Amino acid sequence: MSSIDMSEENTNTESSENNSESLLETVSDAKVNSRTSFEEFTDERMLISSDAFGKKQMKIKVLEVSDENPVLKWKFGDRVKVTKIMVTIKHLTTQQVEEGEFDIESIERELAEKRHYSSTNRWIPVEDIKNGYVVGSKHTRLISDASALDYILF
Asked: Which residue blocks in 25-118 are alpha helix, DSSP H?
């Protein structure tokens, strides 16, 4: 082999190594760094709550939070006051999906006027909101007034 042939082989192996590196790294990963780390991963089952009969599943997405500062931050930790939510209910028997947007703040005021009480605790710990969704254990906190006024049957 001549020296020219050797240099061509070296450039070919270098270019094939560069190509394999670019194939392994997708465009979205390179520009956005969109891969989820283990700490950021959220199991979908954590975000879903079921009714007592196991025929419906509910998922709540936070649409809007208040800019109000929480009281006793040192005692209760970082919390946000949720004002608007999107509730998605899936009927497991028919696979029908219902969605509805709720202004929790106005529902709370309406219940206080009509029934002279309110049971909603709209302060949700920040760590209980994953990817914009509220974990299933906090769902009843947010929908208690709406279910008392029969806006949600769950």
From this structure: 27-32, 73-76, 104-115
Q: What is the pLDDT of residue 4?
A: 47
Q: Judge if pTM exceeds 0.70.
A: no
Q: Among 6-10, 101-105, 124-128, 142-146, where is mean pLDDT lowest?
A: 6-10
Positive/negative CA dihedral, 102, 107, 109, 110 = positive
Residue range 45-77, pLDDT digits in tens:
888 888 888 899 999 999 998 887 777 665 667
**3-state SS class at 39:** coil
Asked whether the predicted pLDDT for residue 131 surpasses 90, the reply is no
CA–CA separation, 51 and 100 (whole Å): 17
The percent of the chain in helix, strand and coil, each rounded to the nearest 5, is 40, 25, 35
Helices and strands of the chain, counted as H and E runs? 5, 7
Widest CA span of the chain, in angstroms?
Answer: 95
Residues 6+ apart with CB under 8 A from 8: none
